[in-house]
Amino acid sequence: MVAAKQPVDGLTTRHVLYLIIMHTIGAMILDGGINFGLATAMYKSTKFPVSLWPLPNTLAGDSAVTIILQQTLTWILDRLAVVGDLKKGMVAPLRMPSNASGLVRWFVGIEYSKVHPQTLGERLSYVFHFHVKRIVVIIVATFIVYWSLAIAVLSILKANAVGADHSGLGGDFNPWPMPEIYKGIYGALLGLTTPFMTYIALIWNGEQQCGYVQPNEIPSEDDSASYKLDERSP
């Protein structure tokens, strides 16, 4: 069994391949396949019209919900996948780049690497301050870009009768295969955001492994009031 690697400074060729093959192409295939399957279950045999806006089968609403669910699950599951790959020695964790932007540093949140909540309240506070805040930012940023483009594309398709409803249900789109193809492509394109989360997870694990916390990145009193910091040496 390959031993876990020590943190390194900067991306190597192995990191680039890892990010591109497994967490970009692989993520797009997985996300696209899952979304295609979900859309098939939702729309193919539906008794309700598939429309751009009206409920219950609204592709606009589906697109919004997909962002929320997929980005939340990606943040959680991708971090777990990275930990597993690091333990296998598949790739080395990363140190925080000296020229990292404030955005990257905030997403990594290495100030929380020494936080060890004990009570339920502390754990909930930690989850909110570290995970929820970052997930919300990712969702909002993704929503602004992806959902806006999705509505524009769906509106153009509707105006040009692409995938028009021939089922007699009176919807904007036929239950099969247009919604399934759309949701599959949409989910796959959302997968393009995965490598950023992977990169963040690689740095988080690298800094945690080194036991490194920058003095000016200790959590503020407001953020750490309900936390218990483990001040033992690494």
Helix content: 55-70%
User: Which structural class do you get from the secondary structure elements?
Assistant: mainly alpha
Percentage of residues in strands:
under 5%
Regions with little confidence, pLDDT below 50 for 5+ residues: 213-234
Integer tally of domains: 1
Query: So how many helices?
Result: 7
Annotation, overall tally of beta strands: 2
Give the strand order, joined by hyphens, for the main sheet.
1-2
Shape: elongated
Query: End-to-end distance, in Å?
Result: 26 Å
Helix and strand sequence: HEEHHHHHH
Cα radius of gyration in angstroms: 21 Å
How does the major sheet shape up? 2 strands, parallel
Mean pLDDT: 90
What attributes does this structure have?
234 residues, mainly alpha, 2 strands, 60% helix, disordered C terminus, elongated, two-stranded parallel sheet, transmembrane
